Amino acid sequence: MTARDVGLPDRHPAAGLPERVTIWEVGARDGLQNEPAVVPVEVKAEFLDRLAGAGLGVVEATSFAHPQWVPQLADATELLEQLTPREGVRYPVLVPNERGLDRALAAGVTDIAIFASATDSFARRNLNRDLHAQFAMFSPVVRRAAAQGLRVRGYVSMCFGDPWEGAVAVDQVVGVGRRLLDLGCDQLSLGDTIGVATPGHVVALLDGFLRAGVGTDVLAVHFHDTYGQALSNTLAALRAGVSCVDASAGGLGGCPYAESATGNLATEDLVWMLDGLGIEHGVDLDALVRTSLWMADQLGRPSPSRVVTAVGGSSRTTNPPEQRS
Ligand code: MG
């Protein structure tokens, strides 16, 4: 018997779930943006290429935020120049304002994302304007991008709770999301920025969007595992009809607004669950785990992903999985 590089779960499909899920990989942007270390541009370029090589079809590459605010991603233009395009792979970039859009267009991007807030407190802290003024800032960005044929994703942050305001009403989140769609966004990513969502809350928010005429076909979910709920919340969203899920390779990126080391849902943990459910996703888990182990070496610390931890060790040993205790 040949030892497998990586274990895989047995498949037990369950009813009421999508046949295929699009994984929106955010490790290179959301992950590295929130890491204390600044990674060299060559390493980022290899990271992006390894992620695409592992089968991820949407790999968010970087951010055109002002380097003063996000020094970790100050090399966005240089990174895109070093990127080797792959057939069928999209590399969205975050664009905070019109200046960022100018830089993104000059770099030849085809997909952008804007980063909005569901709450007034976070809009003031992160965007330096109030809840309503954010739309005036985003409006020309979305309009110009759409006019150029770009796809535009709208992140909605703090959808399930805000560290300054506490609970966030479903209707408020739906109102912000509706306005972003009205501006011209073609997809919303509903973010649990501080990781406080639980499955019933997820269902309530998705129901709220449905009542407002927004179907799950234009919704993605972005969960953080701060309180260990990310996969439960993901399963609830899949059952409600969502088929695009954000995740970060190796669980890269804590959350600067939550006092915790755990942030983004790890892509490997998501892939493991999808594999067990027999849901197609196109990702080679072995290649992805090797990529995250490589990146952990670059960052000098282990990946917080449960799956990387569980199977990563076995890829470095000659023992087949069944001989491990
Ligand atoms: Mg995140």
Features:
about 325 residues, alpha/beta, TIM Barrel, 6-stranded parallel β-sheet, 3-stranded parallel β-sheet, about 40% helix, about 10% strand, disordered C terminus, binds magnesium ion
Structural class: alpha/beta
Radius of gyration, in Å, reads 19 Å
Please give the domain count: 1
The name CATH uses for the topology is TIM Barrel
SSE string, helix = H, strand = E?
Answer: EHHEEHEHEHHEHEHEHEHHH
Model description:
The chain is 40% helix and 11% strand. It has 325 residues and is of the alpha/beta class. It has one domain: Aldolase class I (TIM Barrel). The longest helix is centred in the middle third of the chain and has 15 residues, at 133-147. Residues 315-325 have low confidence and may be disordered. The protein binds magnesium ion (MG).
What's the helix and strand layout?
Layout: E1 22-25, H1 27-33, H2 41-53, E2 58-59, E3 62-63, H3 76-82, E4 93-94, H4 98-106, E5 111-117, H5 120-127, H6 133-147, E6 151-157, H7 170-183, E7 187-191, H8 199-211, E8 219-222, H9 230-239, E9 244-247, H10 267-277, H11 285-299, H12 306-312
Bound molecules: magnesium ion.
Magnesium ion binds next to loops.
Describe what is shown at a glance.
It contains twelve helices and nine strands. The protein is α/β, with parallel strands linked by helices and 325 residues long.
